[in-house]
Amino acid sequence: MMNNYIEEMEKIALKAGAFAKEKFLEGITGVALKARNDYVTDTDRMVEKFIKEELKRPFPEIPLLTEEGSSSAKGNENLFFCLDPLDGTNNYVHSLPIFCVSLALLEGKEPKIGVVYDPMHDELFKAEKGKGAFLNGKRMETSGKKEIDEAFVGTGFPFRERGRVAEYLRGFEKVLNFTGGIRRCGAAAIDLCWTAAGRFDAFWEFGLKPWDIAAGIVIVQEAKGCISDVYGGAIDIFKGDILASATEELKESMVGLLK
User: Fold this and answer.
1) pLDDT confidence of 57, banded at 50, 70, 90?
2) How far apart are CA 198 and CA 134, in angstroms?
3) pLDDT single digits (tens) 60-75
4) Which CATH number covers residue 119?
């Protein structure tokens, strides 16, 4: 990958995040319900439109797969961007300041570059395959935690796939009983970045979308973490069952609890 990809993506994410923060502080408007507990706001739409237009300038030939319906990619292209203009919309709607802009570049179905910007905390997470992961320009790595009983774990509830709640809760009970604690923050891209930064030792969730996880995947991997599906197999970004772990040892322990 050439440097100009990540540099342009970073500039765009910073501008988009600043706009989302401004609208958040002004007061949230134009809230609509796509499905139960699944919101969209005027900010989602405006940020998506802004990023789509900004990406076209330097990269007019690269299509975009995005959450709010204006995609020019289907996800099977050789090279495409993947965008969540506002990950954590439910938080945003309820004035909870945990949300971000998440932008990835994929080759095939493999994330090669990820940029996640949390504007409320002014934290920019980024990674390019083979070049390490960074938080506000400083290299970062996972916690390196290996022991399950000391692990501090993030999760997300299967709100899109209600039929899997029982499956999720079986694993949740075991993780709760055998780890050092669980937190649910409501923005998967941030959860993955926090795992990369060592704030969480692991994170798992069912039924996420490509735009929820694409950027976070490469950021965790470049921070020397492990990415798999929740049962230890290869990740499929279009199925979206994801487990991120600080180490291979912790991954195996988490898989043992989630199975």
Assistant:
1) very high
2) 12
3) 999 999 876 667 777 7
4) 3.30.540.10
